[in-house]
Design goal:
With about 100 residues, this protein is α+β, with helices and mostly antiparallel strands. The chain has a domain of about 70 residues: 2-Layer Sandwich (Translation Initiation Factor IF3). α1 packs across α2. The chain has two helices and four strands; from the N terminus they run βαβαββ. A hairpin with a 3-residue loop joins β3 and β4.
Length: about 100
C-alpha cells in the first residue's frame, strides 16, 4: 500500500524554505511586551548561525510594528507576519546569510 502524502500546512502558517542554513528556531513569547521582544529576538538570532530562520509568536498588539522596524534597522528579513484572530501574531524572521550582523 503506498504511503499517504504529507498533509498541506494550514493556510495561516508560514512555509519555511531553507536559506543558507538549515537552522530553524522558535521563540514563544506570550506576555512579553514589544519593547522587550525585539531584544529577545536579537539574542536568539545572535546565538544562531548566519542565515538562520526564527519563528516568533507574540500576543502583544504592538509587536508587529516593533519587529518590522527592528528587522529593517538590523538587516534581518521579515519573511512573514501572520495574525491569528485574538491569539497574537507569528513572525518568521531570517538573519542575513553572511556575518553582516548588527
Amino acid at each position: 500500500m503506498p504511503a499517504s502524502p504529507e498533509p498541506a500546512p494550514p493556510d495561516d502558517e508560514p512555509i519555511l524554505v531553507a536559506g543558507d542554513t538549515d537552522e530553524v528556531g522558535f521563540l514563544d513569547a506570550p506576555g512579553v511586551r514589544a519593547a522587550d521582544l525585539v531584544g529577545r529576538v536579537e539574542a536568539v538570532l545572535d546565538a544562531m548561525p548566519a542565515g538562520s530562520v526564527l519563528t516568533v509568536h507574540s500576543d502583544d498588539a504592538a509587536a508587529g510594528d516593533a519587529v518590522a522596524a527592528w528587522c529593517t534597522s538590523t538587516g534581518n528579513e521579515l519573511v512573514a507576519a501572520i495574525a491569528h484572530d485574538g491569539a497574537g501574531t507569528t513572525f518568521t524572521i531570517r538573519s542575513p546569510g553572511d556575518d553582516r550582523r548588527r
